[in-house]
Design brief:
Elements lengths: L4 E6 L3 E6 L1 H15 L11 H22 L1
Antiparallel strand pairs: 1-2
Helix pairs in contact: 1-2
Length: 69
């Protein structure tokens, strides 16, 4: 995210490089998805609330830039 580039390898497209705003947006999505495994350390009664907030964060991260353009 800091260099505004992201390079990945896919089966169908080969090596793909994202540059600029697309790379930053993809980095934000990966950070939000990476937070999900932390749910195992929460007390059992906090899990439903955490999952609701996490789901809203994922949807806002994925679809927010599409609606704000």
């Amino acid at each position: 995210m800091f260099t505004e580039t992201h390079t990945a390898s896919t089966r169908r497209s080969g090596i793909v490089t994202l540059v600029g705003a697309d790379a930053v947006s993809f980095g934000r999505i990966l950070i939000v998805l990476g937070i999900l495994p932390l749910v195992v350390w929460l007390p059992r009664k906090w899990v439903p609330g955490f999952l609701c907030v996490w789901f809203v964060a994922v949807m806002a991260t994925v679809f927010g830039p599409l609606f704000l353009r």
